[in-house]
Amino acid sequence: MNRATTTLLALFAITASAQVRYEDLLKGPGADWTTYAGNYQGWRFSPLDQITAANAKTLVPKWVYHVPNARGLRSSPVVHKGVLYITNANSVYALDGRTGREVWRYIDTRAKGGGVNRGAALFANRVYFTTGDNYLTALDRETGAVVFSKQFADPSKGISSTSAPLVVKDKVIVGSAGGDSGMRGFVAALSAETGEEVWRTYTIPAKGEKGSETWGELIEWGGGATWLSGTYDPELDTLYWTTGNPWPDFAPGTRKGDNLYSCSLLALDLKTGKMKWYFQFTPHDTHDWDAQSWPVLIDLEWRGQPRKAVLHANRNGFFYLLDRVTGEFLRGTPLIDKLTWATGLDDKGRPVLIPGKDPTPEGNWVCPSVKGATNWMGQSYHPGTGLLYVLTLEQCGFFSTSAQTPQPMKNFSGGGATEEGGQVILRAIDPKTGKRAWEYPMTGAGRMWTGTVSTRGGVLFSGDDDGHMLALDAKTGQHLWHFNMGELLTASPITYEAGGKQYVAIASASAVFAFGLYEPAVSVPVKKVTP
Amino acid sequence: MVRTMRLYACLLLALPLVAQHGRYLNESKNPAIGNPEAIAAGGKLFNGSCAGCHGRDGAGGRGPNLVRRALWHPLSDDAIFKSIRDGVPGADMPPTKLPDDQTWNLVAFVHAISGPAFENRNPGDPEAGSKVFWGSKAGCSNCHSIRGKGGRMGPDLSNIGGSRPLAVIREAIVEPSKDLFLLGNEAVTVTLNSGETIKGVARNRSNYSLQIIDRAGTLRLIDMAGVKDLAVSSKSPMPDGYAQKLTSEEMTDLLAFLARQALRTAEDTYSRGKN
Questions:
Q1: What is the pLDDT of residues A192-251, one digit of tens each?
Q2: Contact check, Cβ <8 Å, B218/A16
Q3: Which chain A residue has its CA at the smallest distance from B18's CA?
Q4: Inter-chain touch A14–B224, beta carbons under 8 Å
Q5: Domain for residue B204, yes or no?
Q6: How far apart are CA A529 and CA A526, in angstroms?
Q7: Which of A87, A316, B5, B160 has the fewest Cβ atoms within 10 Å of its own Cβ atom?
Q8: Domain at B199, CATH number
Q9: What is the extent of the structural domain holding B247?
Q10: What number does CATH give the domain A25-517?
Q11: Rounded to whole angstroms, how far apart are CA atoms A426 and A453?
Q12: Within-domain flag for B120
């Protein structure tokens, strides 16, 4: 059989059985897209190049799958051997990546707590996801059958789960949500085989532990949620995870001090969960500026020396470059133009504050807004252009305190925040300098949450603030193509290959769309089914 | 009217999913619900007075089958109480004059037989049933899996006791092709243009593509443009004849074992002591 025939047969039938090995996850995306952020370094970059800056203008929708009862999907798909997996709250859907036809669905109808789910993880022959009430569920990737479903945290302690798990070696790393209502955040490693806990590292120290002196009486409910999945350096065997804001968000008087380890980046040993170092972006945060987006790991030259670096675009308005071996602060530059709470960062990376910017009973206008300069929108690093693509928001907000006594788990954040309209600008940043290479300003009301994926084909896919799917030239930011998805975009695109063809998939608020290059339809003779 | 009927059709399709939830839209707090003594007393009353129409243990007769009710018409406990007390006007169901506590015993019984098997005390030995399930005589695990072990062609049974009444599980074993909505579980034989023949279960299919789990348990995504011939069986892939193949004791034990298969049991739940 010659190669052409083999390829032709592959177009007609895909066998989806091969296992997802650690080595496959280590390699990162190819035809498949196996982890939330693409590769362990958090690049959201694909080596696929069928769709190029030259032919992107011929992109067309290939299929749409309406996720039952979905309103505001936050999920970014993962794909293996032609099957695409998308999550909604307490549910997973496996779809044929070429046609969008459902292969199986799993709905945990007994789960308490709906809300948000950001995606699934793949490993071996399993797909992993977490429920709103903190069950890690492992399903057979091909059949949707339950392998195990095991709870890893107690929802009655204010903890819920939203992030896509990250599988590294034999561990499934999960996070914790709920930091704005009072809870104690953590990162936990669970056995990929059984769901049993291997280790758990709290993001807020217990009373009496080192760091607890940076808190007040409410330390047990201090927040520091881990809303998003993190990244991993295999050579250093280190996980990089960001932590959320301290609680109560807008009542700083109740928690005098830096409130460690909220609004921080933690470097954790994979084997033990032990904290190797931390870097706090916003000590004693008073604006709900979680360290939200995942840390992007790249190697670069810094002052003539090669460095293992970590990039972080923070909600507080600054773009950070740190040494990922030591946590040393190397550089911080403004991510946005409207930044009114700090004049800059000192040589240790600590913000130089402008007085009078904390929330007050009367309220206070501060930029950026509570949504932050960026948030959990998926960023992308393109090793070819050397640029990091970040969705940013130029927006100011109003922050006020409340006279109420803080009560955990009562949806109380110590005050309130509102924001003005604002503008979303997609920015390409050169990590070597922190300077912008280009920007793509958008129209809209500053309500989108979509992110990016970039490809070797030189295309950057994203969404805009008006519900359009976009293809831009990754080098220049020039518009190549757009498609009106008809609703607000709240999830990030990915790209994959199935049956020899490249697709780009993204969830809108209620459906998953897949796009590919235009091809004329081929007539399929209807098969008379014999009994 | 057309719209109403469409809505009704949608509801019918949606209800099996709701039924998996295992319970009613509005559960009563009456202490009889879930109380084994009340259920037993209600059962005695039911089989004495109601079984004439509704069949023994609610299996249906002149009156509706109550056991499969969870698959098509979930009622709240209060609605069942009202139906027993007031009857169903315009139908043959008469009102009753039973005292409240006895009426509630009846409701508790109906609630139990039409709710997930896991919630009830069931006859049989689950340990012995486990041997039947995993053993070669019945061969259940050749096609069905529980918590990651077993075959991959048939539906996963990890939560079968947590989602289906015992009578429904029994019916699926004894009469697998009865009343079955086979879409998603069709036995198919596909011959590709390349000459390869694949036998398996179609999880989904259209005129343009086919998604099947083959006999080896492997998911195959097939483009219908590459298919020469497709044969779809009108019967369930599940074999017939289990009522004859298994002894009555083996069947009871197997059902007791399957009734125990539920997710979100104590062992799945995070120990509060840990945190």
A1: 999 999 999 999 999 999 999 999 999 999 999 999 999 999 999 999 999 999 999 998
A2: yes
A3: A109
A4: no
A5: yes
A6: 9
A7: B5
A8: 2.30.30.100
A9: 126-178+240-274
A10: 2.140.10.10
A11: 12
A12: no
